[in-house]
Amino acid sequence: MTHKIELKTGTQYIDEDGILQIRFRMAPGIKEIQEEHIKDHIDAIVELCQGIPRPFYIDGMNSYLSMAPGACKLLAQCEVLNELRLAEAYVTDVLAIRLLFHYHLRLRDTRQGTRIFSDPKIAKHWLGLVTKENRSH
To answer: How buried is 92 (Cβ within 10 angstroms: 0-12 exposed, 13-18 middle, 19+ buried)?
Structure first.
């Protein structure tokens, strides 16, 4: 694992399989993730990926998350992130988070290489398959 970046609203690191692990969280005093928080996440992603497109694993298991519409739009439509996303697996067992993930995906220009899962093992397996397929082209 490369170094872990801890932010006010989440944690990010690249795991041993080269997957960017993203975990959002609501810190004390923060009721909703705002655009400035997303800008911090984008900076962390850029730092960790070092210009190399990677699969993203967004962990929403057992979590509570609220995101302002502008923050969701920035996350969905950021060109830098679009260049670094090889594939994305959103993982949650919480209905409200699943709805938030669907809203986020509707804001994106493309959903290619993106799925929502409730089982982390299946999500990681799928990311491995999609990554292998994308790198072979």
So the answer is: buried
Does residue 60 contact residue 95 with C-beta atoms inside 8 Å?
no
On the question of pLDDT at 112 being above 70, the answer is: no
- What was the pLDDT predicted at 74? 92
What are 57-69's pLDDT values in tens digits?
999 887 777 889 9
Q: Are strands 10-14 and 5-7 parallel, antiparallel or unpaired?
A: antiparallel
Containing 21, the helix (H) or strand (E) segment is strand 20-24
The total of other beta-carbon atoms located within 10 Å of residue 49's CB is 21
Using the Cα atoms of residue 22, residue 110, residue 131 and residue 61 in order, give the sign of their dihedral.
Answer: positive
Q: Which two tokens stand for residue 51?
A: 């210009």
